Amino acid sequence: MLPIARVYIIAEAGVNHNGDLETAKKLVDVAVSANANAVKFQTFKAESLATKTAELANYQKENTSEESQFSMLKKLELSEETHKSLLSYCQKKNIDFLSTPFDLDSLKLLLGLGMDTIKIPSGEINNYPLLKSIGLAGKRIILSTGMSTIEEIESALCVLEQFGTPRDEITVLQANTSYPTPLEDTNLLAMLTIAKKCSVSIGYSDHTPGINASLAAVAMGATIIEKHFTLDKSADGPDHKASLNPEELHQLVSGIREIEKCFGSSKKLPTKSELKNKNIARKSIVAKSDIKTGDLFTSENLTTKRPGTGISPMKWESIIGTNAQLDFKRDDLIVIGDIT
């Protein structure tokens, strides 16, 4: 069996830059400091993403002063030049730059920047034209599945496959699009169902409070973890409140790396660190009372005690009924050469 792969941790800056390049760069710095593998933004044009009358989600109403999705999104757009600046900044800082396209023009922009991985957001899982174009691009794909059924996930995978991207190039993330997600709605077991029924690598896009759900997902086999973070949870904007602060992002990455150390291999063998304790913790067959030469070994005059440097108690039945060849004092180890 191959060693368990290192978990790819995506620090999701999303729109928590509030449309400001310098804030976006500060978010990159936090992700770098936390040792995340990638920092991810969102690429969209408000005109292509929502009508001017599209309502805000409840969590957006609670966390932004905007009156419509369109007005909110318009302020959160990043220009092509800003994308180029962020890509260059990430390369300089040695962290992967990712962004999520929400429309065909945004996909074209990201492909033009040389992206080798495309992240499909939950809301676009049934967007056939976008799925088709992403499938044709022949890139690694990360697919979020909030609000989806297993049938919808399979349908999206079939479109991506049909247009050229095989499943072994796709990782599917269990996700919930409530911000924040109630713990009882996290449903991490669905991640295992996706892996089994869709034959894909799995991961988790976490919108719950805190880091425990992500840590649990890693323990269950997630190969990608995506988590929102912000510089300030109290800032005006749709996602700040449900995001980690910089210290919490550090804790998440550190926790995942500690869990990875625990995986080991599929072989069950004594480890190097515990071998020195083997003879100390295990037992041997010893004299329960004084035994004279020629006496019959019985359950009355034998017992098992530490250390484990003598005859294993698993040989108990082969020793009972044999004769002692030497005298033994109480607690003496019974050794093989003393047995007929």
Please tell me about this protein's structure:
It is a single chain. This protein is an alpha/beta fold. The chain is built from 13 helices and ten strands. α7 (128-137) packs across α8, α8 crosses α9 (189-198) and α10 runs parallel beside α11. It starts with 7 loop residues before the first strand and ends in a 21-residue tail after the last helix.
Helix content: 25-40%
Going by CATH, the architecture of the largest domain would be Alpha-Beta Barrel
What overall form do the CA principal axes indicate?
elongated
Return the structural class.
alpha/beta
Short description:
With 340 residues, the chain is α/β, with parallel strands linked by helices.
Characteristic key phrases:
10 strands, alpha/beta, 2 domains, 340 residues, elongated, two-stranded antiparallel sheet, eight-stranded parallel β-sheet
Helix and strand topology:
Blueprint: E1 8-14, H1 21-33, E2 38-43, H2 46-49, H3 58-63, H4 69-76, H5 80-93, E3 96-101, H6 104-112, E4 117-120, H7 128-137, E5 140-144, H8 150-162, E6 170-175, H9 189-198, E7 201-206, H10 212-219, E8 224-228, H11 246-263, H12 272-281, E9 284-287, E10 302-305, H13 316-319
Parallel strand pairs: 1-2, 1-8, 2-3, 4-5, 5-6, 6-7, 7-8
Antiparallel strand pairs: 9-10
Helix pairs in contact: 1-5, 7-8, 8-9, 10-11
